[in-house]
Amino acid sequence: MTTPANWLVSLAALAIVGTAGAAEPLASWNDGPAKQGIVTFVAAVTQKGGKDFVPEPERIAVFDNDGTLWSEQPIYVQFVFMLDQLKAVAPKHPEWKSNAAFNALMAQDKKALAELGQKPILELLAVANSGMTVGEYDQSIRTWLKSARHPQLKRPYTELVYAPMQELLAYLRANGFKTFIVSGGSVEFMRPWAEQAYGIPPEQIIGTQQEVNFAMRDGKPVLTRAPKIVFVDDGPGKPIGIYRQLGRRPIAAFGNSDGDLQMLQVTAAGAGRRLMLIVHHDDAEREVAYDRQSHIGKLDKAWDEAKAGNWIVVSMKSDWKRIFAFQK
Amino acid sequence: MTTPANWLVSLAALAIVGTAGAAEPLASWNDGPAKQGIVTFVAAVTQKGGKDFVPEPERIAVFDNDGTLWSEQPIYVQFVFMLDQLKAVAPKHPEWKSNAAFNALMAQDKKALAELGQKPILELLAVANSGMTVGEYDQSIRTWLKSARHPQLKRPYTELVYAPMQELLAYLRANGFKTFIVSGGSVEFMRPWAEQAYGIPPEQIIGTQQEVNFAMRDGKPVLTRAPKIVFVDDGPGKPIGIYRQLGRRPIAAFGNSDGDLQMLQVTAAGAGRRLMLIVHHDDAEREVAYDRQSHIGKLDKAWDEAKAGNWIVVSMKSDWKRIFAFQK
User: B27 by DSSP, 3-state: which?
Assistant: First the structure.
C-alpha cells in the first residue's frame, strides 16, 4: 500500500533519474510490487528532511553477480573458463586424475560440484595459473571472453547480463548510491568486463581472492599468482568481504541464492530503512527455472527468510519485460 | 625546467581547482620544484587531447598514512592505542610477560619494535580485542581518539594531519582523481576519522587485516574479531593490497619511508606519465627530523630510489609553509 504522498515522492525521483540516464528508468520492469518496492525505497532514503533519509556516502548497494546480474546456468561462467584453462595444463598435472574437483569439473557433474563447494574448485584453478603475472592472467581472461560462447544461447557471456538489473544499477547510481559487486567468483574474473557491463569499476568489486606475491624481475616489480585461495567470498564470507573492503553496512542488497543469505541478513540487521531483494529464476522459457533443488544457485533458506522478512522476491517471468538486452 | 606552454596549462589547472575548493589550492605549499612538479603532472594528465591525458576512472592516487598524511613520531599512533588496550587486558594474559612484542611495546623500545616489524605487534592487539564485535571495536577506537593526546603537542591525534597533504588530496580530487589510503596500520583504526580528516571514505582505505568471523547471536548476524592477522599491508604487501582491493595500477603514489618503496615502484613501472612523491621529515623545529637512521619511518632505500628515478622529494622545512592546520 502506497500513500499519495509517497507516490508524489516516487514520481519526483523518477523525474530526476529520467534526466540523468536513458529515456525511462527501470524500463524493462513491469509495474508491480517489485518495481514499486524499489522506487518507494529509493524515494524514501533520498528525500531530504524525510524520516528515512540517508546521506549519499552511506547509500551503499551490494549485488551478487552469478544469477543476480548475469546467467549462471548451466554452470558458472568462471567454471567454463576454468575447464578450458585446466584442459590446457592438465598434461603437466598427472596428480589431478585422482582429484575430485578436477574430475567433477571435467564431467561437468553439477551435483558433485555443488557438494564440493567453490573452494577446492578455485584452488585447482589457482594451481593452474600459478606463476603467471597478474597482467598475464588478466589478459588470458580477456582473450577467453572474446571467443567463448554460451552453449545454448550461442552468445558471448558478457551479453548474458540482465537488462533489468543494468537499469536498476544505473537508477540507484543516479540517486546517489554507490554500487558494489560481492561475488563468490574470483575478483580478477569480473574486473575485465564489469565496468562496461554494469558501470562498476574494479575497485568496487569484492570477490574470492587468490594469493599473489611481489617480486622484482629484471629490475621491474611484478605481482605473480600463487597456488592458494586466501579468501572465499561466499555465504558467511560475503559480509566479511564487505566489512574488510567496504567498511560500511549496505542499505540495499541484491542476491538470488542461499550463498547471498548472510549478506542479506547483515543488510537487514542495520538501523533505518533497508532494501533486500532476491531474483527468483522462474522463467523456463526466456532463461532457466530453478530454485530449491538446484545444484547451481540453490534458493532455499534465503527464500524462506525473504518470505518471513518481507524482502522483495522478483519473478523474472512476471516482473521483467525482458531478460537480456538483446531481447528487444 | 618548465616551458612556457606548460606554465599556461598549469595556470589553467589552478584556475579550475580554484573554483572548486578553498580560496587557493595548495595554499600551504611554497612555490618551488615540489609544488611545480605536482601542478605540472596534474595539468598534463587532465589535458584533454594531450599526449599524457588519463581518463578520470584511471586517475588513481594512493597515499601512505603514517608519516605521509599525519605524524608517526615518537611512535605510531596505533601503537599508543594498543598500549592502552593491552594494559587494560594484560592481567588476563600472564603469558605476555615473556612476549617480546609486549615487552617492547610496554617499554616503548623503538629499536626492538622496529626489529620485530608490525606483524607480531598487531597480532598482540588481535589477541587483545579478540571476541569483540566489529561495532564494539570501532567504538573503542572512537572513544580512545576523543581523549588521547599527543605527548609533546598535547593535541588530539586527529589534529596532527598535515595541512599541505589535506590540500593535495582535495586538489587531486578536484581534478578527477580518486584518492586511497594504503597503510601498514589496520584498516579499522583509520576508518573512524579518515573521512573527516582527509575526505577519504572507508571503502577507499587499504590496510592490514585481522580475521573476522560471522555468527548469529540471538537471531542477529554479527561479525566478531579473531586473534589472527590475515594480511600485512606493508612493504611488498602494499602493491598486493592495491591489487586485491583496487585492481588498477595507481598513476600517483605518496609515501615517506622504505615501507612505501614497493608501492612507489609499482606505480613508477606503469606506462604513461606518473607521479611519485616522498615526504622527507627534515623539520626538527616544527615537527621531527628523521630519515636513514630512524626506527620509525626509516627512509633509506626509498630515498636512494627517489634520487635515481627523479621522484619528487618534499622538504617539509622548505616546501611547506605550515605543517598542521592549527599553525596559521
Answer: coil
**pLDDT of res. A25:** 93
Contacts of B244 in chain A (CB under 8 A): 187, 209, 212
SS3 B302: helix
Nearest residue in chain B measured CA to CA from A187: B244
Tell which residue, A284, A285, A280, has the closest CA to residue A307: A280
Q: What are phi and psi of A43, to 5 degrees?
A: -60, -40
Backbone angles phi, psi at A122, to 5 degrees: -65, -30
Give which of B142, B206, B210, B243 to mutate to test A binding, by max A Cβ within 10 Å: B243
Q: What is the pLDDT of residue B139?
A: 96
Using DSSP, state whether A40 is helix, strand or coil.
helix
Cis peptide before A74 (omega within 30 of 0): yes
Name every chain B residue with its beta carbon within 8 A of the beta carbon of A178.
203
All 3 cell numbers of residue A93? 598435472
Among the ranges given (A32-36, B149-153, B166-170, B243-247), the one the predictor scored with the smallest mean pLDDT: B149-153
Residue B136's contacts (CB-CB under 8 Å, 6 or more residues apart) are none
CA-based max dimension of chain B = 69
How much is the pLDDT for B141? 96
Helix, strand, or coil (residue B80): helix
Task: Please give the DSSP secondary-structure letter assigned to residue B283.
Answer: -
In whole angstroms, give the CA distance from residue A179 to residue A190: 14
- Chain B residues inside the 8 Å CB shell of A247: 187-188, 191, 202-203, 205
Distance CA A203, CA B188 (A): 18
ipTM of the complex: 0.90
pLDDT in tens, B135-190: 999 999 999 999 999 998 999 999 999 999 999 999 999 999 999 999 999 999 99
Residue by residue, DSSP assigns A147-184 as: H---TTT-S-GGG-BBHHHHHHHHHHHHTT-EEEEEEE
Please say if the pLDDT value at position A108 is more than 50.
yes
Contact B240 A213 (CB under 8 A): yes
Contact A221 B187 (CB under 8 A): no
Q: Is the pLDDT of residue A322 over 90?
A: yes
Q: Encode A213-242 in three state secondary structure.
A: EEEEECCEEEEEEEEEEEECCCCCHHHHHH
Q: Quick one: pLDDT at residue A23?
A: 60
Per-residue pLDDT, B205? 98
